[in-house]
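**User:**
My hope is that you can spare some time for a protein that puzzles me. This is the protein in question:
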Amino acid sequence: MHRERVVRLLLAGTLVMTAPGCGSEDGADPSQPSAPTGGWRTAGCEFSRAPHFTTVGSRRLPATPPRLAAAMEKIDRGGRERFADSFAGLEVDQGRVRAVVYRVPSEAFDDFIRYSAEDNCVVVRDAAHAVAELTEWHDRVVADLPYWSAQGIRITSVGSRHDGAGVEIGTRDLEATRRGFRSRYGDGAPLVLVEEEPVRPLSTGP
């Protein structure tokens, strides 16, 4: 969904790094604060729309309507290039034919979203952290990977959450990683720890 998403798979170290990316709340550290709940909707949300589908082979799959996809692309690009201190990320809800934008409240960015949405439904939700801040934390953790490896802490993934909750860190040992991160980064660092096994490379042999 994001052209700016960078994915690197290091087969030797079985490490996946994404920036900025989408994370999962499954297995998340319960000590992490919950995300903000405020927000608003564009005028286009007043109208109901039938879901779109596409056919791939014999399968009928949900699809994003072209007009909504174009609006999402415009908001994503503008958010990253012009409003990086507010924009956190976005997602598509194909069943409800709407986009969901996460952002740290900003009047200027809200106006940009209204203009870019046109007659599409865009739900705007508050985020705790913007992409600019999370990118800095993402890069800091990635730069520290050799340090964590030397400490015996296995980091399997590093990726900024599209909802602005923080940078999601996958690790095989939550408790050891939590203690180490608290000591190095402090209690207020926007880092969300999840228990995760390393990605296994696909076999290419017979």
About this structure: Confidence is low (pLDDT under 50) at residues 1-31. The chain has five helices and eleven strands.
